Amino acid sequence: MKILVAEDESDIAGMYKDMLEGRGHIVTVTHDGSQCIQAYRDALEMFDDTSDEYLSKNPLFDAVVLDYNMPNMDGLQAAKIILAMNKHQRIIFASAYAKSTLEESVKQLRAVVELLSKPFADDVLIDIIDNRRVHEELKKINDILSKQERIQVDQLRDMLKGLKKLKVDTPLLSG
C-alpha cells in the first residue's frame, strides 16, 4: 500500500517509515501539513483521471497519516484540503490530543476519519493501516452521509424553485 505521512518529529516520522516499509508499504514522509499537501498535489498530477468516481476506486494513497499538531499547517487544515481534492481519501490522525482532535474533526471535516491516540504501540499503526475492513465500513458511512447531504441540497433547491414560482413581491420598507 502507499502511505503518506505528515509528522513534524523526525524520530517519530522515521519510526513510522521503518515500521510501514518493513511490512512492504511504500511510504512518503513529510514534516508538516503544507509539505503533505504538496506531496498530495504532486501525486494527483500523476493521474490522468481525477474524477470522483475514479479516485474512489483508485486512491492516490491508501492512507494519509497526519499528526494533528504541526508547525506551518496542522493536520486538521491539511485534512480539509486533502478531502477537498478527494473526499474518498482515507485519513488517520495520530494525536496526543485525542478528545479535541475528534471533536474538531467531526465539526470541521464532515467526513469520517480514524484516530490514533499518542503514544501508541508500534503494531497499532500497522494494524490500523492493514485493517481494510474497518476502512471499507468507514467509506460506507461516508457514502451514506454524502447521499443524505445530496438529498438535503436537492430538497432546498426544490424549495427555492417553489418560492420563485410564487413570485412573491415584498415592498422595501423605508425608515
List the helices and strands and how they pair.
Layout: E1 2-6, H1 10-22, E2 26-30, H2 33-45, H3 52-57, E3 63-67, H4 75-85, E4 91-95, H5 98-109, E5 114-117, H6 122-130, H7 132-166
Parallel strand pairs: 1-2, 1-3, 3-4, 4-5
Helix pairs in contact: 1-6, 2-4, 4-5
Describe, in plain words, how this protein is organized in 3D.
The protein has about 180 residues and is of the alpha/beta class. The protein has one domain (about 1-130): Rossmann fold (3-Layer(aba) Sandwich). Helices cover about 55% and strands about 15% of the residues. The chain has seven helices and five strands. It has helices spanning about 10-20, 35-45, 50-55, 75-85, 100-110, 120-130, 130-165, and strands at about 1-5, 25-30, 65, 90-95, 115. The chain has a five-stranded parallel sheet with strand order 2-1-3-4-5, sandwiched between helices. Strand 4, helix 5 (about 100-110) and strand 5 form a beta-alpha-beta unit. The longest helix has about 35 residues, at about 130-165. The protein is globular, with a radius of gyration of 20 Å. The model is unreliable at about 170-175 (pLDDT under 50).
